[in-house]
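Minutes, project huddle
Topic: does the predicted pose make sense with calcium ion bound?
PN asked that the exact inputs be recorded in the minutes so nobody has to dig through chat later. Recorded below.
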Amino acid sequence: MRVLIVEDEPTLGRQLRATLEGAGYAVDLATDGEDGHFLGSTESYDAIVLDLGLPEIDGLTVLDRWRKEDIDVPVLVLTARDSWSDKVAGLDAGADDYLAKPFQTEELIARLRALIRRASGNASSELVAGDVRLDTRSGKVSLAAEPVKLTAQEYKLLSYLMHHKGKVVSRTELIEHIYDQDFDRDSNTIEVFVTRIRKKLGAEVITTIRGLGYSLEDPEERRE
Ligand code: CA
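Predicted holo structure (tokens), as shared on screen:
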């Protein structure tokens, strides 16, 4: 899962990026509205954290432009403390949630998790496919109730596939959603991660769809 942060306060921006990376997200950071708008329009994100008070282009305008461009990624806006008019304006412009500054980063992460889950149609914070369970809160993965240790990249890849269970996900889509923009993206590494995940969770957990990509399905649904 990949998140864009648009925040002009350097300390807060860096802190948010570090916290979200620690929580298992690929993160890009834009420090003004123009950069933020560009990245949100051209890159693929699973959620965006958007400060409203931004240099170059203000956050509400950025959000309004994205929505007019049919970019429907979930957006959480950061508003000034107690500014109810900011909250209303943000929601009117197409925000999915808001958080007033100052906030606890734990709350931001919890809200982002919920936004990403809802956008992919998952009601529960625990994602299940057969014997494989992925807890989006703790970042823990288990196979038949036994904990399984995954590297950060393996977790990102599995998490993306589990959020999109039953769908065919192309290699390009995986690359776009598990790496930030500064990462040296090599599509061969996706195959390597898939192989490692299969070794840890069973060969049948991820199906290769020749020429199209990968799919993760529930074993019961696969048999039908
Ligand atoms: Ca600001």
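Observations noted during the meeting:
- The first helix runs from residue 10 to 22.
- Residues 8-9, 51, 53-54 surround calcium ion (CB under 6 Å).
No decisions taken; revisit at the next huddle.
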